Amino acid sequence: MSESTRRIDARGLACPKPVLSAKKALEEGGFDRLEIVVDNAAARENVSRFARYSGNEVLSVSEEGGGITILIGVKAGAGAAASAADAAAASCADAEERSPAGKPGAATVFLRSARIGGASGGGDDELGALLMRAFLATLSETESAPRRLVLMNGGVRLAVRGAETVEALRKLESLGIEILACGTCLKFFKLEDKLAVGRVSNMYEIAGALLEGNTVTV
Question: What is the pLDDT of residues 85-116, one digit of tens each?
Fold first, then answer.
């Protein structure tokens, strides 16, 4: 019996649309394999990760003619549409086993800037950058360390090559604390190839992470 394949061209779609396209197709079903074409590494990782979270199998990933093709084998009885919260939880499973922070109730820290406070809020930008460096360095020493850090907007600058905060973030990552950097934000600032710590994430996963439990916004 031949296998049926559904193909989706998700090139040019902004995050998180490639993942949502895969999710919708898997929910509709009626095929054995899903072939989805994207045009950037972040979308490749996000779609592949979603496929695994939903209980399906990534059969192959190939690049040709400027496109990246992800071939997903649909597993009978697999949960076709993992929720955003389930996807975020799955991505943190290993970290939770290694880290004292990865326990029920551990918080997600949402960093939306490379500074704490700053001129726009009536503070000082230089002081704000100093406070952020001190905050990240202190997190690794606290007993109630967070489960993960989510970096969005200017916060992604904390994790790129040359940033003074990279070493502090690497120490946190070594403790099992996950660091998610917004792929759209990295692309906007033209920093896609400069991420030095953590991994590129998407709005679908980030939304799940922020809604999963306690979130502290800095």
Answer: 344 334 433 333 434 444 434 789 999 999 99
Count CB-CB contacts under 10 A for residue 57.
13
| Cis, peptide link before residue 146, omega less than 30° from 0 | no
- Rounded to an integer, what distance in angstroms lies between the CA atom of residue 182 and that of residue 28? 28
Rounded CA-CA distance 172/199 in Å is 13
Burial 59-81 (b: 16+ CB within 10 A, else e): eeeeeeeeebbbbbebeeeeebb
Helix axes 17-28, 203-212, angle to 10 degrees: 80
Instruction: Render pLDDT for 184-217 as a digit per residue (tens, 0 to 9).
Output: 999 999 999 999 999 999 888 899 889 887 899 9
Q: Which amino acid is at 89?
A: A
Q: Can you tell me the distance from the alpha carbon of 135 to that of 65, in angstroms, rounded to the nearest whole number?
A: 45
User: Between 2.60.120.280, 3.40.1260.10, 3.40.190.10, 3.60.130.10, what CATH number should domain 84-217 receive?
Assistant: 3.40.1260.10
Burial zone of 182 (CB within 10 Å; 0-12 exposed, 13-18 middle, 19+ buried): buried
For the chain, the distance separating the N- and C-terminal CA atoms, rounded to the nearest angstrom, is: 56
